[in-house]
Write a structure and sequence with these properties.
The chain is an alpha+beta fold. It has a domain of about 60 residues. It has three helices and two strands, in the order H-E-H-H-E. It is elongated.
Length: about 100
């Protein structure tokens, strides 16, 4: 499960300060597609260990996950920087 921003904020409330919050879901589509390509390019090296069922499940997972991030409506992925007491002088994100 990918938690919502509201769920993350509720869990962090009183414990952490959100220094930076960035939605990187649109980039995750590219990551999943690269994993899919690498998995298929190297399948012959591991297929005897994992079998055809694993191959189908893994491909389905990678492709359907990539699609959900590409659609930008169902899944979001956040890169979050939090601190316990606040970054002295403020936090400058690297982007």
């Amino acid at each position: 499960m990918l938690p919502s921003v509201a769920q993350l904020a509720k869990a962090a409330e009183g414990l952490f300060i959100f220094e930076d919050l960035q939605n990187i879901g649109s980039d995750y589509d590219k990551t999943l597609m690269a994993w899919h390509e690498n998995f298929n390019d190297n399948w012959n090296e591991i297929k005897d260990k994992y079998g055809e069922r694993f191959y189908r499940i893994r491909n389905y997972f990678l492709l359907s996950s990539a699609r959900s991030f590409r659609a930008r409506s169902t899944n979001q992925l956040w890169q979050i920087v939090m601190s316990e007491t606040g970054a002295l002088g403020g936090y400058l994100p690297f982007r």
